[in-house]
């Protein structure tokens, strides 16, 4: 069986239904087909979309959800010869173009499922669909049923996918990223947040650095938050009032959201609600995703767009129209949409609007505007007059997606546009250097079919561009004259928008959520010489203490046998040194998300390599099997703010570069001196921890030697000296470390000892960026005094016992016991 749907869709119109819609059947593998739509019981035309299902339990039973004036659920029990309408409930057949799926149970011919805004189940052959199965998200589109176990199903909907193993009583969560984003924006928070509007969901903002930066802000105190608006709009943060967000959605919705209080205010330009009406009936045509943007030069100027450009100077309280209609407004693009049977007018096909708006970074009164039907305009006087600057090659019905004005030169701008909705999937990108008087098409290197949606220029290096397309990302080093893909591990997914922030490329994809390419600094420095030099060390991005790592990136012209990386402080003291001999990072122990990042070994691969330093000095001396509670002495003290030097050595060639560790900009009332003091105390505690652990190692080393000698002699004097010495050293060992610990939570059973108290004290001292407390100094003094007493006692024991013991061992021609560690 097969169903055909006669339909076409353009940017301004979808039209479904007609004589070519129908149901067909083949019994010879597709060589010939018989139409069933005209058979007894089927509705009269016109017919639109048809969803079909054949019962595996009874192959003669066929269901069809038919879009027609007298449509509904139809069933045939004789393989399509005769039909009967079993259900005409509109909940099953509303918005046919978006739903209209029906799925048969594989084992029971009476059970059939209908998918619409909800998931419905019939147990009487499709007569009634009174059972509504609750799934985690609405707008259901497909259902797979295990042919051997009908209680095991997979459902797909506008929120993603879900699995049930109990017939829909419970479902798995949608905890993987299939989010469809329309735009992406970044905030001025630290770390910056990534925001976007999710298809059939809320807006969402998340910290760019992930779980380690939960945002306890606003009423929900979650690690992500909605920022007002709705499923399809722009999101814009106020330039200086970081808790204020402006977001849009379908139906001209425009909100002002206060993140601190959770309050949302509607600030629509023209809050006259519309639905089910063609664009021609609307005084203002608001696209599904209309621009919302501030002037980079005046934060009191907030802009948005219908077919006109609107300006607010009072935070959305009032709006002023500052342009004429900047579109073609072709009447043929403003009519009804949906089809012969079912109309569907809720926003996506509202056309002839200003789709892209870019206020200038250079001149307060310059604004660039682009429409979704192929016109570009510019004003140089704040909207009093507008000039048509449409590229001559730009055809009508071209959607101008993004206009990117260069940060480097006034009058230079880049435009990403597309025509896939008129069956033209070619990439369209243009550049102007004279305010749009002349244009150059710049698509060399972009693959056919990779139509463009977003272009951005680096704010540091002129001409370094990133292009978002239907299938991925491209980079250009020459202002767009040539492009090359920079896909890496990015899936093949539509890039709806991209932003550049703090040397990161931030993507909003339509189906795979947010993606970030961290630290593209090497692209700013890369030249043809880079590939020829055996070692190139790139300028690292300054790191923020407590939140980021230092990322050292270097380029090798050939694979190396080994690479050494070193970090030195401003006084030339070695902080950390690592040697690597592998082309990829070697597997390490998997830590929970809340664990401190570790510093791995450098890699030796040909091409670009990346080594991360976790901004910590060397950790305390450790011994095998050590178990510490509430502390991680293997992690060294946090480096204080200041200037550091990275050195990379390959095949005898060493290159160095300096970078800074900065204070967290969110800190209040904390000075660099405070953090230096924190580092100094943490270092002292680290050293004391090492002393305690080294004493334990030394005691075990001595014990091992003594036990070896006792196996070789029965001399009573040797035995007595050895037994007494081991007993006294063991007392010290047990005071320094809880030797009964064998598993991770044993410290809850056996009291912790001195080295654990030191380790926990350092955790306390470094918990946050601040000067150590008076209590921390007091405890450090107490623990240091205890350690000194144990170490002095140990020293006396060794002085008093080792020489006599070794003299007796020598008399028996046995090796002496050494207290020195190799």
From TrEMBL:
InterPro entries: WD40/YVTN_repeat-like_dom_sf, Xyloglucanase_GH74. GO terms for biological process: xyloglucan metabolic process. This is Sortilin N-terminal domain-containing protein. It comes from marine metagenome.
